[in-house]
Amino acid sequence: MIANEEGLRRLMRLSQGGDKQAYAILLEQCGAWLARYYRQKIAPDAIDDLVQETLMSLHRKRASYDPSRPFLPWLAAIARYRWVDRLRQGYRNEADSIDNHDPSEDSHEEVVAAKISIDRLLDLIPASQSEAIRCMKIEGLSIAETCQRTGQSEALVKVNIHRGLKRLSALVESE
Amino acid sequence: MKQGFSLDDLVNDLEPVRPFNMVRAIASVGAILAAAAALIILSKGMRADVMAGDPEPMFLIRAGLLLLLGGGCGWAVLSMASPAVGKQGQSWKMALAAAALFPLAALVIAMTGRVEVAMSNMRYGLDCMAFSGIGGLATAIPMVLSLRRGAPTNPERAGWLTGVAAGGLGAFAYGLHCPFNDVVYIGVWYSLAVGVCALLGRLIVPRLIRW
């Protein structure tokens, strides 16, 4: 079952009121939504951990959701914050490659959600910074491989990652 | 998979919560501001022209700009408690731009040499800073509590803006007593009060609200 805005919003409202049955469904649907959201934005073997961290944040910060507003942009802000935080912690992916996901398989809901996606967030920072972040922090390339792929020097890669992550954290709520 | 993580644990841990409500958050800041203003009036007295119901134009401009600054930045701070992608509160930029009027005007006039009021009343200027800071601290408390309960995604900006908002509102409260109408005095001492609060906000608030 694919989560939709209206359904999630209703479940969240019930959850804020203490409805455990609604909350169990909400967490399950948010977990699935987050797994799709993070796909290709972090190493495949790190997705589960990041989804769990985000669900824990959802749990701790559930009072911060204003029920008069849409739910998915709120969840996306929480998810982006956790994602940037994870990248800043210096996570290094040791996986060799990322899975080949075809975006055309995505549901209409996901296409509509493009504006709140992580790709959109990466588009908001300079290309040299997003390129360095994609290579090292998402694909898990070594610094030498990143230099080779991007044509940037080692020092420049480090500076671009540092500045890029700083910018990303300031842009979490940008569309 | 993280050790010990279970959706069932989160479900079992669920308790009802009071959802974020902007109106309630604004009301709490407003109530503290009113209390701070009342305390300043009770302890220092109200400006004579305001008391007489015939306020000086400079008082009105200053009070309006400080309220705009504190209100605009305070609104942005409280909005940050409930994040959402696409929710770009920019009110604080307009408020900051408007509030830059006094320091800029003070700079221009200071260059003509008319600085005697600001410099010869340094003791009052320091009073202005201290009382604005105390009033600001009081109004910062509900803002920080809202941020701690909420989920601000940019703690550094939240810190800056909390400081500016608190400084602006604290200076507004003190302004109900402050008898000076000199542009350089206002530009120097009020700007210093807001600037110091902003710096303290940047240094202290992010540590309290990170999640």
Question: Which short descriptors sum up this protein?
Answer:
heterodimer; A: 175 residues; mainly alpha; 65% helix; B: 211 residues; elongated
Strand content of chain A: under 5%
| Main sheet attributes: strand count, strand direction, barrel closure of chain A | none
Assembly context of the chains: heterodimer
Largest interface: A-B, 43 and 34 residues
Label the structural class of chain A.
Answer: mainly alpha
Indicate the low-confidence ranges of chain B by residue numbers: none
Please, how many helices of chain A?
9
The helix tally of chain B amounts to: 10
Number of domains of chain A: 1
Q: How much is the average pLDDT of chain B? A: 91
Helix fraction of chain A by DSSP (H/I, runs of at least 4): 55-70%
The helix-strand sequence of chain A is HHHHHHHHH
- Computed structural class of chain B: mainly alpha
- Assign an overall shape of chain A: elongated
Low-confidence stretches of chain A: 91-106
Description:
The complex is a heterodimer of chains A (175) and B (211). With 175 residues, chain A is an all-alpha fold. Chain A has one domain (5-170). Chain A has helices at 5-16, 20-38, 44-60, 72-88, 108-112, 118-123, 127-138, 143-150, 154-170. In chain A, helix 1 packs across helix 2 and helix 7 (127-138) runs antiparallel to helix 8. The longest helix of chain A has 19 residues, at 20-38. Chain A starts with a helix and ends in a 5-residue tail after the last helix. Residues 91-106 of chain A have low confidence and may be disordered. Chain B has 211 residues and is mainly α. Chain B has one domain (7-209). Chain B is 75% helix and 0% strand. In chain B, helix 2 (22-44) runs antiparallel to helix 8 (122-149) and helix 6 (101-111) packs across helix 10. Chain B is elongated and about 70 Å long.
